[in-house]
Amino acid sequence: MRGLRQVQHAQRLRFRKRGLLLAVCVTGVTGAHAQDLYFAQPYANRMQLNPAYAGLLDDYSVTLSYRNQFPTLAGTFQTSQLAADYRFRDQRSAAGLLVNYDRTGGVGYTRFQAGGVYAYHLRLNEQLSLSGGASVSYGLQRVSYGNLVFGDQLGDDGVEREFSLEVADYQPVHYVTGSVGGLLYGERFWLGVAAHHLNQPDLAFVTQTTLPLRLNLQGGYKLYFARTTEKQQDREISLAPTAGYTRQGGTQRAEAGLYFTTTPLTLGAVYRGLPLPGATRPQQILTAIAGVSVGSFRLGYSYDMSLSRFSNDLGGTHEISLALREFDSLEAAWRRLKRRNYPIIPCPAF
Question: May I ask which residue range the UniProt record assigns to the signal sequence (predicted)?
Answer without folding.
Answer: 1-34
